[in-house]
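Hi everyone, sorry if this is the wrong subforum. Our group has a chain we'd like a structural model of before ordering constructs, and none of us has done structure prediction before. Sequence below.
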Amino acid sequence: MDYTVKKVTIDDYDQIFDLWNSTEQSRRALNPVDDTREGIGRYLKRNPNTCFAAVKDDRIVGVILTGHDGRRGIIHHMCVHPDYRRMGIAAHLVSLAEAALQEEGIQKVFGLVFKDNDIANAFWERQGYTVRTNLNYRNKSLNKNIPQGE
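Answer:
Right subforum, don't worry. Here is the predicted structure as tokens:
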């Protein structure tokens, strides 16, 4: 499949938000503060070189938002439109994000995947990401508008 890849900018927000809303699992991962235009703008300002979009016919069909804190990388959102899955787009985006993180001196990356998202968990396993069983993921919302989670 012919597609191009570009770095994500805030001008891509509307298309990315539509893409996230194309699947139940991606919608589930959104929160009403951090995933707004303003929230994503802050994220991209902090991580201008590690977020990528796959574009086909002027339409964003895949996106990965990856950033770091100077020590560890994190994949916050990765989504490919259902019509464009199983074509290697997701693996390509992951590869680009990992390379961009390495260019910034980051040597380890993690991502969060819902336990019941079998398709995504199988994908990440194929990419070499393992499940950590020796850690507890702890979460605290500092904003009443962001759900605490299960």
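For your construct planning: The two ends are 38 Å apart (CA to CA). Helices lie at 13-20, 24-29, 37-46, 89-103, 118-126.
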